[in-house]
Amino acid sequence: MSVYLDNAATTRPCEEAVAAAVNAMTVAYGNPSSLHRAGLEAQLIADSARKTIAASIGADSSNIVFTSGATESNNLALRGASAVYGRKKHRIVISSVEHASVEETAADLETKGFEVVRVSPRADGRFYAADFLEACSDDTCLLSMMLVNNETGYILPAKEVFSSVKRRYPGIITHCDCVQAYMKIPFKAGTLNADLISLSAHKIHGVKGVGALYIKKGVRLQPIITGGKQEKGIRSGTESVPLIAAFGAAAGKLQHSIGERYERVSGLRAGLLELLKDTEGVEVNSPEDGSPYVINISQPKRSEIMLHFLESRGVYVSSGSACSKGQQSGVLGQFGITGKRADGAVRISITAETTEEELKIFADALKEGIVSVRG
Ligand code: PMP
Predict the structure, then answer these.
(1) Domains 3-11+256-372 and 15-254 share a fold
(2) What pLDDT was estimated at residue 1?
(3) Tens digit of each residue's pLDDT (9 = 90 or more) over 136-186
(4) By alpha-carbon position, which residue is closest to atom 12 of ligand 1?
(5) What is the SS3 assignment for the chain?
(6) What pLDDT is recorded for position 321?
(7) Distance from the CA of 99 to the center of ligand 1, in angstroms?
(8) pLDDT value at position 155?
């Protein structure tokens, strides 16, 4: 039996998502751009998913562009917006704890003449709107910050930051990577004050390889993939209707239970921390008021060694973020978690389907590893 506690890396597709994908592969397999009936059927499926996803963030279908995942959504947001709005304004402001798909894209734009300002948390490990405001200027075209950090679960004050920045600099385009918040922490595009929002399906029990970018009405982006002008010309390429259908099914299933699942996951998190409370050498890295879905702890052994030990006990967790393939991403350091504490960081990421028994198996295995493993 395996205990899967790496849901911030990816989740198990729900039955509804799988069924929707299979239907779009076996029955409604037309190309949504085709003008015949089979094409129309596929288009209706994609449109229905678009409507569900749009509604779930308080948006209209016309605001949603499907992509191959949040990595592409983040690339489209940063590259597409900076190409349009950065002709005269050369500064891009991001937080220092962004996912690689924002950080590396910003770093690439830096080599192309943009000035990238990275705002760090203060010594207390928290971000402040005043610091983002100070980093912005009349020369700034874009501000990008995530809502929930994927490594620690820390909730960034995106709404407050975007509102104060928009008040002073209405021309700055605001982008929010909401991948780890979507269907977990309630937010709406309007109240978040984000012009662009990135979403990913496989973090919400959809299938890997599809995501979305919310684009506020009136905001223009230069496409990064050109071709047949699908998705209103913003993202060319035949839409992956099976993956989109699965995305819509997963979102449709989860959209009404955000509060209920939050309660359950908060309880699971509290239970886990209680189990680990008196364990020698275990420290909690996630803030108390962070997303309960991500629990980052440090323990005395090196992360990879502990990961492998846990794996031998059938338990799957992660060190830092899976995307960095075990390398320390520097994000923990930004939150003040450095040295041995960073070396021993383990990320447990749960869902509402996680059980108390599974967390007990993890806690027991961790304790066993702490006393028995060398490293
Ligand atoms: N942003 C965040 C915060 C993430 O956690 C991830 C997934 N690790 C991504 C972006 C990239 O998403 P995708 O896998 O859909 O490209």
Answers:
(1) no
(2) 81
(3) 999 999 999 999 999 999 999 999 999 999 999 999 999 999 999 999 999
(4) 70
(5) CCEECECCCCCCCCHHHHHHHHHHHHCCCCCCCCCCHHHHHHHHHHHHHHHHHHHHCCCCHHHEEEECCHHHHHHHHHHHHHHHHCCCCCEEEEECCCCHHHHHHHHHHHHCCCEEEEECCCCCCCCCHHHHHHHCCCCEEEEECCCECCCCCCECCHHHHHHHHHHHCCCCEEEEECCCCCCCCCCCHHHHCCCEEEEECCCCCCCCCCEEEEECCCCCCCCCCCCCCCHHHCCCCCCCHHHHHHHHHHHHHHCCCHHHHHHHHHHHHHHHHHHHCCCCCCEECCCCCCCCCEEEEECCCCHHHHHHHHHHCCEECECCCHHHCCCCCCHHHHCCCCHHHHHCEEEEECCCCCCHHHHHHHHHHHHHHHHHCCC
(6) 45
(7) 7
(8) 98
Cα 71 to middle of ligand 1, angstroms: 6
Positions annotated as catalytic residues are: 323
The pLDDT, as a whole number, for residue 137 is: 98
pLDDT tier, 322 (very low <50, low <70, confident <90, very high otherwise)? very low
Which ligand 1 atom minimizes the distance to the CA of 98?
3
CATH topology assigned to domain 3-11+256-372: Aspartate Aminotransferase, domain 1 (3.90.1150)
- Tell me: the pLDDT tens digits for 15-49? 999 999 999 999 999 999 999 999 999 999 999 99
Half-sphere exposure of 367 (CA within 13 A, CB side): 14
Ligand 1 pocket: which of 7, 68, 71, 96 to mutate (most atoms <8 Å of CB)?
Answer: 71
| Architecture per CATH, 15-254 | 3-Layer(aba) Sandwich (3.40)
Mean pLDDT estimate for the chain: 96
Q: For the chain, give every domain's residue range.
A: 3-11+256-372, 15-254
